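Protocol step 4 of 5: obtain the predicted structure for the target chain.
Materials: sequence only (see below). No template structures provided, no constraints applied. The aim of this step is simply to have a reference model before the mutagenesis design in step 5. Sequence pasted as it appears in the construct record:
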Amino acid sequence: MKFEKMLTTALLLASCAFLSSVTSAAPSTEMAAAARDTGTGQRSTGTSSRGNQTGTSSQTGTGTQDGARGKQEAYGKAAYGKESFDALKVDGMLALDGTTIEGLLEVNGMLMAEWANIGELRVNGMAKFRDSTIRGKTAVSGMLKAKRTKFQGMVTIASQMLLLASSEADSITVRKIPGRAVQTLILLDGTTVDGDVIFESGRGEVVMDASSKILGNVRGAQTRAPRNGESDQGD
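Step 4 output (structure tokens):
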């Protein structure tokens, strides 16, 4: 319970500045449905901006799109399905389900993604992934939680908590944050980090179960096995 409270606190501190202006949504782990049923935003169905994919998107708030290049910007709350964009920026809350972003995805607020394929990722707030791939660099200031997700480029995060389960990462650098709190990286359920894990503060902790591994070096952190229900966080 104490561990879950730490995780919740890290999330709230990272994203509260952005979510204060966002209309609250009903809780859902399969987030696209809740975002689509708002009933007040713009909604479109048709062929995606790249290739042969088709899908449905919904958006609450305001946004702009450059149709020639497939660039999209949204404010407030947005959800996209099996669509493809060159780039996407959202200030608020974003849900992705089977969406492809060829280039940069930038989110200031909260991101929840399933079966997403992303070129490069920048998040200031909170990001949660399932069954997704980030092909390039990942930069997060806030909290990151991922399950069955591949981070094929370098991961850089400024956070007190980072959790990867059944996932892969190229390398991980944990930036120093204000205060003297221990920064924790949790690797569960066969997660593999191909390169180094670096904690710039020197106050890091790697919690890793027996099925997970780091093929490079660990710097600025101690490593230990999960305890007190920490292994359940990957569920």
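Step 4 remarks: The longest strand covers residues 100-114. The two ends are 15 Å apart (CA to CA).
Proceed to step 5.
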